Amino acid sequence: MKQYEALSVEIKDGIFWITLNRPEARNALDSTMLQEIDTAFAEAEENDDVKVVIVQGAGSKSFAAGADIKQLKSRKPLEALIPGMQSLYTKIENSKKVTIAAVSGYALGGGCELALACDIRIATKNAKFGLPELNLGIIPGAGGTQRLSRIIGKGRALDMILTGKIIAGEEAERIGLVTYFVSEDELIQKAESVASDILKKGPVAIQLAKFAVHKGYDIDEGTAMWIEKLSQAVVFGTEDKEEGTSAFIEKRKAEFQSK
Ligand code: CAA
Fold this sequence. Notes:
four-stranded mixed β-sheet; Enoyl-CoA_hydra_C; alpha/beta; Enoyl-CoA hydratase-related protein; binds acetoacetyl-coenzyme A; six-stranded mixed β-sheet; globular; ClpP/crotonase-like_dom_sf; Lyase 2-enoyl-coa Hydratase, Chain  A, domain 2; 11 helices; 2 domains
């Protein structure tokens, strides 16, 4: 396991936990933390025993309060063009592992965008989501202008981005920004129970289901259907398909062996 400064990282029962750990700065995403998130995801990606990555913030006050504004202040135009937070989040979206954001407290700017890049979002009553970048004279630049509208629809996304309003966990669930809304003390348990449902599935099917949904979403339906068909052709050739179908017929639980 690698050593981390701005994160706490733990692997437990097939889950790779990443805790953003700068509570004194509301877990703002500075360059060290971003570099370490990249390293941690690479570590999870290479580990065959890991199927799910859960990202959370240290302390209940904040998931992540966005890009580190003190570092952002001196950033020059061309620096926005080099791979940074946006590329990192795209990498996370494309991860073969399932990603879950467990959000308590502030998920603002780049913190909200990190949650949007995850496959599943769980929020507590105390969660607060927003893209307040326009208050700083900039725009959301880590996928927020694109992923938010794909998740909650263009009208609501424009409202959130243009007003910079911050919404609580309950409203986030109502508009589909998060999938689950739980009390503060249920957050970890809920994240683990969602992960545990996923952990029972075959890894190849997990990866290809995720791939088909993400890659098919932005293209024409006919091509997307081919992505689905070809992904199915791949899983039809796996031991997992043999095991899953046999287990059903034999009335037992499937034990998927592939890595
Ligand atoms: N960057 C750097 N430092 C931050 C920070 C950020 N995004 N958010 C909070 N901090 C620091 C504060 O400067 C403060 O540090 P000091 O103690 O040294 O003064 C400390 O964290 C605690 O912050 P507050 O006293 O403000 O705490 P609060 O509980 O009263 O408020 C907050 C919390 C609502 C999150 C507030 O800190 C805040 O509004 N933060 C900025 C949120 C924001 O604008 N995020 C977008 C960033 S831009 C971005 O993300 C661009 C992109 O698209 C990638």
